[in-house]
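During the second year of the project, the team shifted from modelling isolated chains to modelling whole assemblies. The rationale, set out in the original proposal, was that interfaces cannot be judged from single-chain predictions alone. As a representative example for this report, we include one of the complexes processed in the last quarter. Its constituent sequences, exactly as entered into the pipeline, are reproduced here:
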Amino acid sequence: MRLNPQLWIGATLTAVFLLAALVSFAWTPHDVTALNIADRLKPMGPTYLLGTDHFGRDILSMLMVGARTSIAVALVAVGIGIGLGVPLGLLAAANRGSLLDEIVMRGNDLIFAFPSLVIAILITAVFGPSAVNAILAIGIFNIPVFARVARGGALSLWTLDYILAARVAGKGRLRISLEHILPNITNLLIVQGTIQFSLGILAEAGLSYVGLGAQPPTPSWGRMLAEAQTMIYTNPALAILPGLAIVAMVLGLNLMGDGLRDLLDPRVRRARA
Amino acid sequence: MLRYALSRALSLALSLLVASAVIFAVIEVIPGDPASYMLGLNATPEAVAALRDQLGLDGSLLSRYLHWLGGMLSGDFGTSYTYKVPVSELVAQRLWVSLPLALYALVLSTLIAFPVGLIAAARRGSVTDYGIMGATQLGIAVPNFWFAMLLVLVFAVNLRWFSAGGFPGWDAGLLPGLKALTLPAVALALPQASILARVMRSALIETLGQDYIRTARAKGLSRRQATTRHALRNAMIPVLTIIGLQFSFLLAGAIIIENVFFLPGLGRLIFQGITQRDLIVVESLVMLLVFAVILVTFLVDLAYAAVDPRLRRTA
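Output from the structure prediction step:
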């Protein structure tokens, strides 16, 4: 396998954040819920590596737990998209031209036309701001994305000879979809999953920035930024660090997505060669 | 072309109908009585009854939906509970901040993306190309509200070239108004420009590889002439699509950016509506934004059907 720098940089960045999020379950340098006013707004130093916020909470610890919040929200939202979107897309492709196919595709067009952020705001506004509602709001928009990818990938496979052979052998559409189509579109789904994951991180940051994501005391990158905004004149570092975390995480996922596409999608590979 | 336009218009109307039903349903599923939800815990039974009456809550689900829909079609978006003025009046005021902001950002994004994408495509594989691709990769990863904060930090806090927020109103003159919108517009435009530049680059590279470009070169056009006369025009279809889509991102993005810069636009209005539980404002504004986005998508569809006759057949 040819060394793919994009993939490796992306995977490394992603792995760092995943690791930080996992470690935060067992250990953080300091307790993120304990307020320590005596140590408020400390600069970077040996005790608090990245300093403290206006409540004396350790920034590094908050970033670690924030990574956990972001990743959890984005990952479950991708899960919703795959869990509902892929079966829909497969069914639509297996019954091409049917009423179901038509409904799935029209429904997709419709959701694509919606400004997702506005709807996410509507959902969280009505059902109350929480991490779970943020997941739902982001996840709903992942469903049509995965349905479209699955349908597109499946449609091109249905024309192939080995599918015809399977049909001649007497296998039903459902069984062919599961046994032959699904394994062959996994690559496409992995690449799309990475992209939606990174969009989910951005969406979660936006929602929690406007106060519609995970609620205090659960740290989240977006809310850290919102809180830092009022202190931007005196403590700019507080406004910079969580932003850098978001950028690094999203950049890592995007690079990994591009790298995976190069690696897994033979059409791109041939085009580049 | 007329047939295509009609079929698109039909699907536009259908989209709007479904969208309105979805938004209405989301508001409907609020647990309990919307009137008491909006008025809070200390409401008197008379106030709740009065609001229920105003909202028409005693009618059936269908009649309420039709009433709301009919009202919007005739320009009546209801009356804001907290401001005690028609929502249409609030929207009219705020629109003059949000719309110029979104358009300003759209113009900036296009002005940045076109030359950048063009240069990257023309020098494909060069150091310049890699530099541009790296920069756009970064631009896509930056959340616009954070970029907005960085802009405030640099240009308002340190350099003091711009104010950190607020809007003087268009009465203060065109330039002060535009100046107040400049940092927000730049913040909105950067991620969009990054995406657009990448689309521009790949669309151009794709068209530059076509046979008609080789023909154009063979008949004696220079590389530059072939690019500007033939490739650029044909690369416009995906680029136009993305510009159309971006308008929706910009309008929605404006909601968050307006909060960073304390701009009195539609975005601030939505959030005020949410915190004050003014569901009439929230419901109508969301519908309006969705309408704007669907309308723009429709116009883009028509625009590129006009540019490329091949697309009319897929209707």
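The domain at 5-15+41-272 of chain A is CATH 1.10.3720.10 (MetI-like fold). The radius of gyration of chain A is 22 Å.
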